[in-house]
Request: fold
Amino acid sequence: MKILNLYAWIGWNRKLRGDEHDITAVEYIQEIADIYKAHFPNDTVIVTDAHQYLLEHFMEYDFIWASPPCPTHSQVRYIATYTTEWEIRQTPVYPDMKLYEEILLLQWYYKGKYCIENVIGRYEPLIMPQEINAHYFRANFVIPPMTKQSRCHYGTIEELEARKDFDLSWYDITEKRKILRNCVEPETWKIILDAAIRNTSLF
Reply:
C-alpha cells in the first residue's frame, strides 16, 4: 500500500506500522525531517511544503494522512488572544484555510482513502468531521471508536520522551517539548489506517 504521510513531523504516528507499507513522509523543517529519517530509514522523506506536494502528487497514493498545523483554528489561540491573565498575548490572525482546501481537494478528486486530523476549533466546523477523543477527523470511511490514551501533554521533556519513546537528547534543536507534544498518537494512526484498509477494495 502506498501511503502519503503529510506534515509528518518526527514520525511518531507511524511507529506501530513497521515497514509493511511504502510510506512517503513530507515535512517542511529539515531538522525535524532528519529525526524522522533517523528513526524510519526505510521511508521516503521529502523536505518540502506538504500543502503543495499534496496538490501535485495526491493521485500517486492509496492512502493519504494529513495533520496540518491548526493553531489559527484552535480554541487555545482565541483564549490566548483575549485573556489578560495569559503571559503571552497574541494578535488576531486570519484562520489558515489550507485545512479546508485539502479536505475539498480530496473530497472532489481523490479516489483512494484519506484522513485529515485537526484539533477541535472554536467555531462550528465548516465541513463536519468525525469527533473522537477531542480531535476532528475528516475521512471518507468510518473510523471506529478509540480508547483515549494519555498524551502526557503537560509533561516535562523527559516525561514526554518516555511516553513517546523518542530520545531527543542527541539532537541540537530548540522547542523539544513542543516537538514531542505535537506528535500524533501511533495507536490512533494504526486504528485509522487499519480501518482504511478494511474499507477499500484495493487490498
